[in-house]
Specification:
Strand order of the largest sheet of chain B: 4-6-12-8-9
Number of strands of chain B: 13
Structural class of chain B: mainly beta
Strand order of the largest sheet of chain A: 1-3
Helix content of chain B: under 10%
Oligomer: heterodimer
Strand content of chain A: 15-25%
Order of helices and strands of chain B: HEEEEEEEEEEEEE
Shape of chain B: elongated
Largest interface: A-B, 35 and 30 residues
Order of helices and strands of chain A: HEHEHEEE
Shape of chain A: elongated
Distance between the termini of chain B: 83 Å
Radius of gyration of chain B: 24 Å
Distance between the termini of chain A: 63 Å
Number of strands of chain A: 5
């Protein structure tokens, strides 16, 4: 019974401490404040978006084509493949050999398509990284030196927005 | 390290894809096709007419006992089978062999009278491996003229690696010959597989 009590006490202490810490935040910049600085995500240009979408679309397309060839190759391989030592009773004809060669051809095309699709997927990732526009630094708010007339903007980012206010000195 | 792992993953996926859809043909699993046709890296083992590893493949030799009736290369040297009795088997599963250009095997028999039945007729079946030169069987009369030629009659779904040709017709009394030979113009690996073994069955059912 001692342990749950101790844990509950520790939790309460933590919550109270957190509340006090939160209460110490200077939401309205009552104290002397400097210029507010924000980091805002830049957006990619349309061309960059098209590039990334094209690369990704190409990778999906080639992956799909590769899958089709893969399935085709699998089906044809199953038609001719045999386990060593188990006679099928079938005669090895030109038609069977055509099927075998078609299976190999589809396999090679599947590998090629997968390779191109994989390359495009990696290209998509690289393009995503290289075209990262980074963040824009925004400075908001000015205040005249103490004693002088001036204005300041009060801005506090919150979840999903910001709290905006102002203060003037005449 | 991350990029290397991704690369290895892609390579492994490609290798798995390649392995998953490659045709794998086991040795000794197919009969040789026409003209000793086999998958790459295999060769026709002539005695069993089966595709085997090249190391194990043997060349053709006539089956034991297949030359017991030689020489039977003409009407005059034909193996005489006697009188073909109504409703009886004249020759059952006799093994023969064709070796070399111009080789022919003859057998002779006599039909002495009309047989009574729904459909009395001569029934000849010649069975031979597909792998080598195809064979033909002809029914000749006493003067050596062709009365009937065998026609293909291999049943669908045959799993013996053999083809068949058959003669199926009623006979008037007289002396007849059956001639087995390589089919004229048949594929023979440009002469390299101009040989074959065969089994012949001759009977005279009444229906």
């Amino acid at each position: 019974m001692v342990r749950p009590t101790a844990v509950l006490s520790a939790l309460l202490v933590t919550l109270v401490w957190a509340g006090q810490a939160r209460g110490q935040q200077d939401y309205f910049q009552q104290g002397k404040s400097d210029t507010l600085t924000f980091h805002v995500d830049r957006e990619r240009s349309t061309q960059q978006r098209i590039l990334i979408a094209s690369l990704f679309g190409g990778s999906v397309l080639f992956g799909g084509v590769g899958l089709l060839f893969h399935i085709d190759s699998k089906n044809k391989s199953d038609d001719v493949s045999t386990d060593a030592g188990r006679h099928t009773g079938r005669v090895y004809t030109e038609e069977l050999d055509d099927t075998r060669r078609a299976a190999l051809r589809s396999r090679n095309l599947a590998i090629g398509s997968y390779a191109v699709g994989g390359g495009l997927l990696i290209g998509t990732f690289i393009a995503y990284l290289l075209t990262d526009p980074g963040q824009e630094v925004v400075h908001v708010g000015t205040e005249a030196d103490s004693g002088a007339a001036g204005a300041r903007v009060l801005l506090e980012p919150t979840d999903g927005g910001a709290l905006v206010g102002g203060a003037w000195r005449f | 390290m991350g990029a290397r792992m991704r690369g290895l993953t892609v390579v492994a996926a490609l290798a798995a894809a390649a392995a998953a859809c490659s045709p794998e043909i086991g040795k000794g699993t197919y009969f040789c096709g026409p003209e000793r046709f086999c998958p790459p890296d295999m060769a026709c083992d002539d005695p069993t007419y089966t595709c085997e590893s090249k190391r194990l493949a043997d060349r053709f030799t006539c089956p034991p006992g297949s030359d017991a009736l030689e020489p039977d290369d003409s009407g005059g040297e034909a193996s005489d089978e006697g009188i073909l009795a109504c409703g009886a088997m004249l020759v059952g599963e006799r093994v023969g062999c064709m070796e070399g250009e111009g080789d022919e095997d003859y057998l002779a028999f006599d039909v002495t009278g009309e047989c009574v039945g729904d459909d009395p007729h001569l029934e000849v079946t010649l069975r031979f491996p597909i792998a080598f030169v195809p064979l033909a069987v002809d029914l000749l009369d006493d003067s050596g003229d062709a009365v009937e030629e065998g026609v293909p009659c291999t049943p669908s779904g045959d799993l013996t690696g053999n083809d068949r040709v058959c003669i199926d017709r009623p006979l008037a009394p007289g002396r007849y010959f059956l001639r087995v030979r390589a089919a004229p113009g048949g594929p023979d690996c440009d002469g390299d597989c101009h040989y074959n073994q065969y089994t012949i069955i001759v009977s005279y059912p009444l229906a």
